[in-house]
Design goal:
With about 180 residues, the chain is mostly helical. The protein folds into 2 domains: about 55 residues; about 100 residues, no CATH class. Helices cover about 70% and strands about 0% of the residues. The chain has 6 helices and no strands. The longest helix has 28 residues. The two termini are about 35 Å apart.
Length: about 180
């Protein structure tokens, strides 16, 4: 995606489009948000089963991984909105990365490394927002070759203006507004 091309032009228009789509398709974004968190945990379980099986040379963990994967694939279909193969794969990895960053951020927070934790939480939420942006077709992935190099850079927490800038910041704000406006 070119730097000057922003798929999110008008917040009010976007929210109106989501609400109209919600009426037509009868979907509940708050339930989908809960399901996305369950999917994150299933992906995490797959990873744990893999490492347990590989480290302990115990094949029963690979069978558990396979069963968990089947469940995740089935549930992912309930949340995705007509994905291409590439979008499906990207969205799965966005959820996985978001979950891992959240877990590392939580660990940093428990170690009283608050600034590191907050930075990781911001990055986790940015990836989670990108998941929703792709899933809701707000982000056209056809021309995307990679995420912008500055999209996940650490922002300066000492500045007075802490409002997120750029595409990822705007996308995060839109996702927050859509989830809020769809909770019933």
């Amino acid at each position: 995606m070119e730097n000057n091309q922003n798929p999110i032009k008008n917040t009010d228009e976007f929210i109106k489009k989501i609400l109209e789509s919600k009426k037509k398709e009868k979907f509940d974004l708050s339930a989908d948000e809960d399901l996305s968190l369950a999917l994150m945990n299933l992906i995490s379980m797959e990873e744990h089963f893999f490492f347990s099986g590989a480290k302990g040379k115990d094949k029963k963990y690979f069978e558990l991984l396979n069963e968990t994967r089947k469940m995740r694939v089935e549930l992912m279909k309930k949340i995705e909105r007509n994905p291409t193969y590439e979008d499906h794969c990207i969205m799965k990895h966005l959820l996985a990365a978001s979950m891992r960053l959240m877990e590392v951020g939580t660990k940093k927070l428990s170690e009283d490394k608050k600034e590191e934790a907050y930075d990781l939480f911001d990055k986790s939420y940015n990836l989670y927002s990108l998941f929703w942006g792709i899933n809701l077709k707000l982000v056209n992935t056809e021309g995307i070759k990679k995420i912008d190099d500055n999209a996940l850079d650490k922002h300066d927490l000492d500045k007075h203006d802490k409002k997120k800038k750029g595409f990822m910041g705007k996308l995060g704000e839109l996702v927050r507004k859509v989830i809020d406006c769809c909770i019933e």
